[in-house]
Amino acid sequence: MATVAETGAVERLTSLVDAPDRYDYSAKDLRQAQIDAMNERFQDRVNKIKLLKLRADEAGISEIRSLEDAVPLLLPHTAYKSYPEGFLMDEKWDKLSKWLDSVSTHRVPPINAAEIRDVDHWIDKLQESHHYVSCSSGTTGKSAMLVASDADMAWCKREAPQAYAWGSGVKLDRSRRMFGLAPVAKVPRNEATGEAYTNALQDPNFERFHYPVPPITVGSLTQMVVARKKIADGTIKPEELAEFERISAERAKAVEDAVEITARALVEARTDKLHVTGLWAGLYNVAKAVRDMGYSAKDFNPENSIYVGGGLKRAKLPDDYREFVYETFNIQPERNYQNYSMQELQSGMPRCQKGGRYHLPPWLVPLILDKSGDALLPITEGEYEGRAAFFDLSLDGRWGGVISGDKVSIDFSPCACGTKGPTIRDDIVRFADIEGDDKIGCAGTVDAYVRGMS
Amino acid sequence: MNSLTELNTAPTTSDEAVDSAPFFINGKVVEGNDATHRSRDLGVTFATPKIDLDALVRPRTELPPLLNVKTSEIIDFLCEAGQKLEDPNNPHVQACIDRMAKVSLAPRAVIEHQMLHATDYLDKKVLTEVVEQNFPNPKALDEWVPHTDHQGRRSFIRAYAPRLIHVLPGNSPGMGVRSIAQSALVKSVSLFKMASADPFSTVAFLRTMADIDPNHPVVRSMSAIYWRGGDDAVERILYRPQYFDKLVAWGGGDAINNVMKYIGPGFQLVSFDPKTSISMVGKEVFASDETIAEAARLNAFDVAMANQEACVCSRFTFIEAAPEEADRYCKLLAEEIRVDRMGEGTPRPLDMELKEQIDVLRMMDDEYAVFGKSDGRGVAIRSDEPVDFHPLRKTSNVVCVPSLQDAMKYVNVATQTVGVYPFNRMPELRDHLASGGAQRVVRLGEAGPSAIGNPHDAMYPLHRFVHWMANEDGVEGQ
Fold this sequence. Notes:
The structure holds 2 protein chains of 2 kinds. Chain A is of the alpha/beta class. Chain A has helices at residues 9-14, 27-45, 50-59, 67-70, 85-89, 93-102, 119-128, 150-168, 188-201, 218-233, 238-268, 280-292, 321-329, 431-435, and strands at 75-76, 132-135, 145-148, 177-180, 274-278, 305-308, 336-337, 339-340, 349-350, 358-359, 364-366, 383-392, 401-411, 423-424, 429-430. In chain A, helix 8 packs across helix 9 (188-201) and helix 12 (280-292) crosses helix 13. Chain B folds into 2 domains: 3-273 and 458-469, Aldehyde Dehydrogenase, Chain A, domain 1, CATH 3.40.605.10; 276-443, Aldehyde Dehydrogenase, Chain A, domain 2, CATH 3.40.309.10. In chain B, the strands form 5 sheets. A 7-stranded mixed beta sheet of chain B has the order 16-17-18-15-14-19-20, with helices on both faces. In chain B, strands 11-10-9-12-13 form a 5-stranded parallel beta sheet. Chain B has a 3-stranded antiparallel beta sheet with strand order 1-4-3, with helices on one face. In chain B, helix 6 crosses helix 7 (201-212) and helix 11 crosses helix 12 (323-337). Chain B starts with a strand and ends with a strand. The interface between A and B is large, with 40 and 57 residues.
């Protein structure tokens, strides 16, 4: 059900999701509508999202009248991991719910901690009150906890296949066999988009390939974080540590074994029209196993398609890893889909075939900031670089304004592909990665004394 | 092209756009803008000469220049250099402060203060005491000291001049001076790897020494250059026992992690590990308003010194109190931390992530209480257990414990200095603190000053630096 706020500018922009010309609106033409829409969101949310209220009061902002006004109201991507870790480790589910409430649009009901078994149970319980919590995976640090609503889940299902179809040129005609080549985190958002892709692409005569590694649950991620903390504190007993290392090794072995199993399944299905997805490291390893079995492009269907999520994630691969993967599975360049997005948003920026750039839809407002993320860079002629921040007008369950850790180059002039919307160059890097860690000082934490957990 | 500039000349005026960070190699200044780098903390660009690896390594067939210079003469030279460093007309130091203010996280006033006080160490009494505390018999630095064991076997022992690489921290110019002095005291041939947060001060100090006597063996024994920490192209070459005996490293991070793969037989690590310091405040603090005020003020000294960048700065205060009592203390502590004792003016805003973490705790008001503001001037957070982020930029976390003994579980190998209030509770705590891994117990408010020549990070550093050499000379009467 649409709320009052959604009948205005927000609705006008988000309703373009199915419009064939949605990437063809110039930023200039959209600007006023986007500002109006951000203000609509702000007026509705400022008294619902506590963290937003705090930001607004601090900055003295009561209305968004310009792009600049929105900047102090952006939340850093780290806001969603700002909960005290002790809440999670010590299973204070009531407190964790209270924290979640401070970043949620819709009230998170109080939870009786005694009734909750573990974090996966907590997430299930929240789902009963229509709060869908997705977690980012990080083995060494805290997971971000992103709360979403029914409307958000519906949006993901609607938007993701549309963006895919635009960027890849692949018809959503349920004619493909889908092969996911990476363990997927079992979180509501992934399940929603997974379901949407399956409905759009998967040939109903076949079962979708099940990657032979148990899905990553938030509970399993949490166990890693807890173990790391206990190692740092020195409270872990050597036997417990040995057990933990054994489980880690087992999981690593399962991932390794999956390569062979997946490669065999792909070879068996090689004459069918395939859609392959995964991360580069996993795709490369499977491709290599397929080659080792003696198969390559000539054996696979020339209409195969691919969707790679994320960058290299620090994996060390040969320089030609992309070509190697494409050539193994016979992927033509026009069926190679790339998308720029982030966990904190729920809308994608598909890459066009001709210009090779990521396109922003009208409901995603680009706010390119200086490196420190404090000030909006003036919008100039041609391409310029800065810290990426966006306002995703489609977001319902949490605040749409997010500052990322990414360094991007944006261009507000038309793309080589002919569309007029703003685009981002395909060379996104994380500030953290380009800077490395050249900082040394005598001050530091016990984290520097933890071995073997990275 | 690199060029050797004449010594005894004032530093060249820096380019408006990019500051030059010259090198100092075996007593000579090397200028050049062949490579540009970005400082880690603030992303400021600076330029350095190209590295000439050959110039950085002295063949082992050559005796160290300082080997036969008496320690007392070295101390005299260091003291003279100290006076030159303090001279307000010293062009190297003044130019260096300007450049450092751009790359350092510390406010300019803090940098000036640190540069000025760096020379406190270069005092005859201080240096002599450092040597005497580090070596049971300091003569071993100057000569082969005879010793005969109880079975009559004769030896001559020498604390022989080592070949050292120092990976300097970037958070305190005082460490550069200290490292230069300590290197000279053990007569080492030393290469200093400067940090991107301070690629200037060590060279400024060395240039000042060269102004006194460009051919002095102390000057000729020293080189200081910059490369990006973890740069394999440099480290793979230099980090070898054939070239150096020991690597003296401060801190953690990539610069240190990367070093580990080069450590092996003959190439040892002397590490000053990354540390966190804490405070412990007993229930006695609540005896009167005066005692609360006194402890909060002392505690604030330990938190806020050097803008909380150093390892000795207190980050957590464990207090024997219930939350309501702790809040009284915490409020005063925040006020004291927020006093601008260094004249730093308007501070830089807090890092987004840190600010977010603190602001979120503000909203969790039944578990946490936040005093002060997250504006970079100072904030104190009361909680039942330590916060899970690293308190920085004048941030103190006051943690309620039923008894200080209950705080021992938070003490670990990364815990360096523990400031205690009231002072008479130190004896009951120190065995437990040492067992937990801590290295230093002081009165609250006295984390900053340190007793001369004391162990640092659970060792006597100079004793670790030297190459202990024995010449055995048969048995008496044979």
